[in-house]
Design goal:
- This protein starts with 7 loop residues before the first strand and ends with a strand.
- The protein has 2 domains: 118 residues, Response regulator (Rossmann fold, 3-Layer(aba) Sandwich); 100 residues, Winged helix-like DNA-binding domain superfamily/Winged helix DNA-binding domain (Arc Repressor Mutant, subunit A, Orthogonal Bundle).
- The N terminus is likely disordered.
- With 244 residues, it is of the alpha/beta class.
- The strands form 3 sheets. The chain has a 5-stranded antiparallel β-sheet, with no helix packed on it. A 5-stranded parallel β-sheet has the order 3-2-4-5-6, sandwiched between helices.
- The protein is built from 8 helices and 13 strands.
- Strand 5, helix 4 and strand 6 form a beta-alpha-beta unit.
Amino acid sequence: MTNEPMNCLSLHKMEPKKILLVEDEEHLLKTIQLNLELEKYAVAIATNGFEALKEFRKSDFDLIILDVMLPEMNGFDVCEEIRRENTKVPVLFLTAKGSSSERIQGLKLGADDYLTKPFNLEELLLRVEILIRRSNPKAKSEELTDYFFGNNEINFITYQIKDVNGNKSDITKREIALLKLLITRKGEVVSREEILDAVWGADAFPSSRTIDNYILAFRKYFEKNQREPQHFHSIRGVGYKFTD
């Protein structure tokens, strides 16, 4: 038996995020549902406005994806009713019409985002992820306390690291925030826009080169060979990824 540190992540088991999907077009409903479930979301479905409200009142959802053109009760009326009972759950409208007047109407009723059909599924999934994270931004990050990979250690409470050479040092709050984001999304490509929003905030305007400099610093800390990184990867034109 060796004393080498094990790869481990101090995270509690998390329940899947719950999404209410309201869409009357059967093929599109099944396609979106399948893709959401592949991303490990728990999905409830409804095909008309009255059914949507019935499902909404059964459970606490992390997001509602709501088609505008629904039978019996349109999406705008459904959203208005939801907002009378819950002002916090994010609502993403889907619509076949892309007019600015419709978007304004939806936003006035309390929608958080708007996607016009036909849309790219990858874009939909990205918007879903961002809306859920924004509505509960501390859910993942608060559970992460320390992390071990290879000979490296990160303590997210004390802001202290042990690097690939065994040296201990303190790093900045922003470095910790970026490490935490990348590690909680281990194996996923995190876009520059997501990083800037989560780590710097909507009111700051750093360049993408700023993130590159942080990634270079992480490689100096944690990589045996900085030119052939095993953990901190730049995905050209897309974003960054951490692998263990």
